[in-house]
Amino acid sequence: MTNVTLDKVHSSLDFQIKHMMVSKAKGTFQNFDVDFDGSIEDLENASVKVVIPVESIDTGQKDRDNHLKNGDFFEAENYPNFEFVSKKIEKISDDEYKFTGDFTMKGVTNEETFTVEYNGTSKSPMDGSTVAGFDVEGKINREAYGVSFNAPLETGGVMLGRDVKFTGNFEFIVE
């Protein structure tokens, strides 16, 4: 077992959704925790738990952030966190994995799979610590979690897409 701690300063978690059928609305989470249990050298036998406070959502527009936190979307007062708990980690290639687990949003849990690229380890020139890096991508259907707010467009289609895409870049300190 390895002691692995998320370096939040060098990590990010972003999302995007189709907007108006022609562009993307994007945002980031200003706060999140990733608990890693296992060894970096044996990812298939590790486990991961990610907790994302809904209050940390940041789209760069305060009114939109507040709308996302209310009952039309995530109902942050009653469901304060998004959560992912891995159930299976499968090696696809030397540096690519599939993390499958339970994703919970707004009190609904579904199995989801995210692609994870392991970027290896490196020694920090600042303090000599070992760091490991991962890039994560995936998408969920927000409607499967009861998040179905939308509006029809006069030109056809709807204001918001169903799929929410996530991208994360995570750096861990390995001891």
UniProtKB/TrEMBL annotation:
It comes from the Bacteria. It holds the Pfam family YceI. Residues 3-173 form the Lipid/polyisoprenoid-binding YceI-like domain. Belongs to the UPF0312 family. This is Polyisoprenoid-binding protein YceI. It comes from Salimicrobium album.
